[in-house]
Design goal:
Elements: H1 8-22, H2 25-28, H3 31-36, H4 42-70, H5 77-83, H6 85-118, H7 122-137, H8 141-172, H9 176-184, H10 196-220, H11 225-252, H12 254-257, H13 263-271, H14 273-299, H15 308-324, H16 330-358
Helix pairs in contact: 1-8, 1-10, 1-11, 4-10, 4-11, 5-6, 6-7, 6-14, 6-15, 6-16, 7-14, 7-15, 8-11, 8-14, 10-11, 10-16, 13-14, 14-15
Length: 376
């Protein structure tokens, strides 16, 4: 058998695209990490980050490989593949609703970011990012991956710079991290759950629901399974680095982020006015790249990309999302939507484990007949 070759450039672009997709408004603004990890303090938050990464790595590794192997015509068929026709269809529609809800949440994050730094109306910021994302999505999935694959590493570099600044501050004040770890739980921030371990696990399951169709789409663009799985692991590794830096910086700069809708932007401005000036557009790029990906993923349930129907549906969804994103405060949207989605992901993982490790012939699937066994 011929040895599977790996295209290094493709692997790096896909890993970068995963980081860009993941570090959207919830992550890049600091609200996700704050509510799921940082409010538990440094020790528990960092252990939670490791648990989160291990679980997320398993999900991405498995789904990138399945996406490459199955080459689904519609990425939402992954739910039918793992859960069967009826439960799978229920998951398809829940996923569409969830992803669209996250899309609206990210647009709210865009508005909050642009308002906090530039002083423009939150609604105007929401509209700008929504229209830019629509323009990118209509270019198709391959062009989208190429664009956001470059943005992903840039995000991690800027988060790392702020994380290193936080470590430098900690080095000068060794008691700061432990002192703020004790204070952050009572600082009035919203939390995902009352238990630090469960918050970390719940965040990983949310990641599964948020990322499953993107994992499948990315995996299907690879030449072989080895290339797909390597891309997923490198991408998740980059996400882990970003998570660790954000946990540390939010605890070290506790006094800076109090009352802020966008904690990371407040930290950037505190570290250096120049860093804040540069980070604001980078943060907007973070949100734009994730929003572009999500609107494409959601619309793919209704139409194939780069078709007239796709463009019409994407435009309609964008117009609705633009206005819905101005209705609730950003941190409130994150606190309502994200934990619920994590619970739904737990059931899906049970189906995945059953098919991957217990009965590979469960819920037989083929492209021509989703209820029949695939001929291999």
């Amino acid at each position: 058998m011929e040895k599977e070759s790996i295209r290094v450039k493709k692997v790096l672009i896909l890993a970068g695209a995963l980081c860009a997709y993941w570090i959207g408004s919830g992550f890049a603004t600091g609200q996700e990490v704050l509510q799921f990890l940082a409010t538990s303090g440094a020790a528990k938050g960092l252990i939670g980050a490791i648990i989160y990464t291990i679980l997320l790595g398993f999900f991405a590794y498995t789904l990138y490989g399945t996406g490459q192997k199955m080459q689904f015509e519609n990425p939402y068929d992954i739910f039918v593949y793992y859960c069967g026709k009826y439960v799978g269809k229920a998951y398809v529609w829940f996923s569409v609703v969830l992803m669209y809800g996250i899309y609206v949440t990210m647009l709210a994050g865009a508005g909050a970011t642009l308002h906090q730094y530039y002083g423009i109306a939150s609604s105007m910021g929401t509209y700008i990012v929504a229209l830019l994302a629509l323009a990118t999505a209509v270019l198709g999935v391959e062009k989208l991956i190429d664009i956001i694959g470059v943005i992903g590493p840039v995000k991690i570099v800027f988060l790392a710079i702020m994380g290193i600044a936080a470590l430098a501050t900690f080095a000068k004040q060794p008691n700061l991290l432990s002192a703020n770890s004790a204070l952050i739980a009572t600082a009035g921030f919203k939390t995902a759950s009352g238990n630090w371990l469960w918050s970390a696990i719940l965040w990983a399951f949310l990641g599964l629901m948020f990322g499953i169709t993107f994992f499948v789409i990315s995996g299907s663009s690879c030449k072989n399974v080895k290339e797909a799985k390597l891309s997923s692991l490198i991408g998740v590794g980059g996400i882990f680095v970003a998570v660790v830096f954000v946990v540390i910086m939010e605890i070290v700069y506790l006094d800076v982020i109090r009352g802020q809708q966008v904690p990371t932007l407040a930290i950037a401005k505190h570290v250096s006015p120049i860093l804040g000036m540069v980070f604001a557009p980078i943060l907007t790029l973070c949100i734009y790249s994730a929003v572009s990906s999500i609107i494409l993923v959601v619309t793919r349930n209704f139409a194939v990309d780069k078709t007239k129907k796709f463009n019409i549906v994407a435009t309609g969804l964008t117009l609705v999302g633009m206005f819905a994103g101005t209705l609730l405060p950003f941190d409130q949207l994150v606190n309502i939507l994200y934990p619920i989605s994590g619970y739904i992901g737990i059931v899906l993982v049970a189906f995945m484990i059953y098919k991957e490790f217990i009965n590979k012939n469960a819920f037989p699937y083929s492209k021509n007949n989703k209820e029949s066994v695939e001929n291999k």
